[in-house]
Amino acid sequence: MSVIWSPLATEKIRDIASYIALDNPSAAEQWIEKIFDAVKQLNDFPESGRIVPEIKRNDIRELVQGNYRVIYKVQNKDILILVVKSYRQILSPDELQP
């Protein structure tokens, strides 16, 4: 399986890390590492994330890392990282587009 990051997901990673870095640059770096480490497990265990509650589709899943959700889609032999967002935010249908 290969992991493919959507432009939206990479933009959100940058935005969140920049926000964290305003107070603590090293915490921002650690947060990024944790997100990427969590995503690495998907290569071997693509369905290890839970089904996204507000979508209820077997192919759309999420990994929860701290206060953030990594929402992804399992598609054939690819894992598409769709978006990274706060667990407090509801996923919008627009964010499901790769």
The biggest beta sheet reads:
5 strands, mixed
The fold-level CATH name is: YaeB-like fold
Task: Tell me the number of helical segments per DSSP (H or I, 4 or more residues long).
Answer: 2
Our measurement of the CA-to-CA distance between the termini, rounded to an integer number of angstroms, reads 17 Å
Outline the structure in words.
With 98 residues, the protein is of the alpha+beta class. It has a single domain, classed as YaeB-like fold, CATH 3.30.2310. It is built from two helices and five strands; from the N terminus they run βααββββ. The chain has helices at 7-23, 25-40; strands at 2-5, 50-51, 60-65, 68-75, 78-86. It has a five-stranded mixed sheet. The longest helix has 17 residues, at 7-23.
